[in-house]
């Protein structure tokens, strides 16, 4: 099956699932379509035959990692950042920066160490460096899942800013940590001591370069928007900013996600207020909200269908199930320790750690990183654990975070 045929079938399935969810179930669209895709996949696995073979061919024809990491992610991050208030982020920048850096490192170590011992207890072979690799890809909260679901959950405003701000920036740190550990896997750990300077340089180029590129491109787009009064041209400028800017970041070896977040924040806060007419703002908001909704729906259907590619050999399902409470415990520690320290200098609501633990959703980025690992038994085990955590995160945490938030806030 060709790529465009597969995308046509995927759009058709997404529209069907969204329609059925709207008519009969009324779950949040990302959760509803993912659940439908998951149920379809499980049904096909049970029935087997030509239908299962067709579905597996469909999923295999859409390279998930490439479609998300090199395509959808740029548009989803820009659309999400477009409506984040920069002043709210500025007031919480110390907390957000601490959680996005220290929190990821703590979680990576806790998850990696825990999974290593759990795998040994179940009689599965998982080298410690591969266990840390799983910790690195599962520790950052997914900005797509977080921004897509929290805005519907009724989370208190101050906490929504903290969680969404953390999720926008911690994936950059997570990808750097993931890349460093992956290089250790590929080299067998040789030269690790000598690579400290290289790691620092890599982080500076990726993170700082991405931030600078996003700011520069955002300013260029802002200048063009300010000199234009035609909403179709202005929407086209933002499209060029996202697609061209993300491609440029890849060629410059800087962080495309961070560049899109910064560009989105600049255009969303200053561009909308100072460079657009009211009519343009309405069209721009409508366009990017629709883009966000459609791509989110496509992404979550893909996540639901990816179960067709996951191999659950003996012990894999058990380790995947045990990984869920382990990741939650690591999230509790990685949030609780920084928040506990920050409470010495500023107040936090009593429910902050609990809601941030439960609201730290994982999604497509973790699945994409797992699918991009080199072939081997460790990849299959890591993919099984990743899929188990992501499904639980989206379906269980995503559906209950609103109730937990209302209960915690006494509403």
From TrEMBL:
GO biological process, one term: regulation of intracellular pH
Location of the Cation/H+ exchanger transmembrane domain: 13-405
InterPro entries, per the entry: Cation/H_exchanger_CPA1, Cation/H_exchanger_TM
Upper lineage: Bacteria, Thermotogati, Deinococcota, Deinococci, Thermales
Main localization, broad class: membrane
Compartments, as annotated in UniProt: Cell membrane
Gene this protein is translated from: nhaP
Transmembrane segment boundaries: 6-22, 29-47, 67-86, 93-119, 131-150, 162-185, 197-224, 231-249, 255-274, 294-313, 319-343, 355-375, 381-405
Family: Belongs to the monovalent cation:proton antiporter 1 (CPA1) transporter (TC 2.A.36) family.
GO cellular component, one term: plasma membrane
Keyword annotations: Antiport, Cell membrane, Ion transport, Membrane, Sodium, Sodium transport, Transmembrane, Transmembrane helix, Transport
Superkingdom in the source lineage: Bacteria
Membrane-related topology note: Multi-pass membrane protein
Protein name listed in UniProt: Na(+)/H(+) antiporter NhaP
GO molecular function: potassium:proton antiporter activity; sodium:proton antiporter activity
């Amino acid at each position: 099956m060709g790529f465009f045929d597969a995308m046509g079938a995927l759009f058709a399935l997404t529209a069907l699932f969204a329609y059925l969810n709207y008519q009969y179930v009324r779950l949040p669209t990302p959760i509803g379509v993912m659940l439908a895709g998951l149920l379809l996949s499980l049904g096909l696995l049970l029935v087997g035959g030509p239908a299962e073979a067709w579905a597996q061919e469909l999923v295999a024809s859409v390279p998930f990692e490439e479609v998300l990491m090199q395509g959808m992610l740029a548009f989803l991050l820009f659309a999400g950042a477009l409506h984040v208030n920069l002043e709210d982020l500025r007031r919480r920048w110390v907390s957000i920066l601490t959680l996005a850096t220290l929190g990821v490192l703590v979680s990576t170590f806790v998850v990696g160490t825990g999974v290593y011992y759990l795998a040994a207890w179940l009689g599965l072979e998982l080298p410690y460096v591969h266990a840390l690799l799983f910790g690195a890809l599962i520790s950052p909260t997914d900005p797509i899942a977080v921004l897509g679901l929290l805005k519907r959950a009724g989370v208190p405003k101050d906490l929504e800013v903290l969680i969404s701000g953390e999720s926008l920036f911690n994936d950059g740190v997570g990808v750097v940590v993931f890349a460093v550990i992956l290089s250790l896997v590929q080299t067998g750990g040789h030269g690790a001591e000598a690579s400290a300077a290289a790691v620092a340089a890599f982080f500076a180029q990726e993170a700082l370069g991405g931030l600078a590129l996003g700011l520069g491109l955002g300013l260029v787009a802002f200048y063009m928007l300010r000199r234009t009064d035609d909403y179709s041209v202005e929407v086209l400028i933002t499209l060029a900013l996202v697609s061209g800017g993300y491609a440029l970041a890849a060629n410059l070896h800087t962080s495309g996600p961070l560049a899109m977040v910064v560009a989105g924040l600049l255009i969303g806060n200053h561009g909308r207020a100072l460079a657009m007419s009211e009519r343009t703002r309405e069209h721009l908001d409508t366009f990017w909200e629709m883009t966000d909704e459609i791509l989110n729906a496509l992404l979550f259907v893909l996540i639901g269908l990816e179960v067709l590619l996951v191999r659950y050999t003996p012990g894999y399902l058990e380790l995947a199930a045990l990984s869920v409470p382990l990741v939650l415990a690591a999230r509790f520690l990685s949030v609780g320790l920084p928040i506990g320290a920050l409470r010495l200098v500023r107040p936090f609501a009593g429910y902050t750690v609990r809601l941030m633990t439960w609201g730290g959703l994982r999604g497509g980025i973790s699945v994409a990183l797992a699918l991009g690992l080199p072939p081997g038994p460790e990849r299959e085990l890591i993919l099984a654990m990743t899929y188990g955590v992501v499904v639980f995160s989206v379906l269980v945490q995503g559906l209950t975070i609103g109730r937990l938030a209302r209960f915690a806030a006494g509403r």
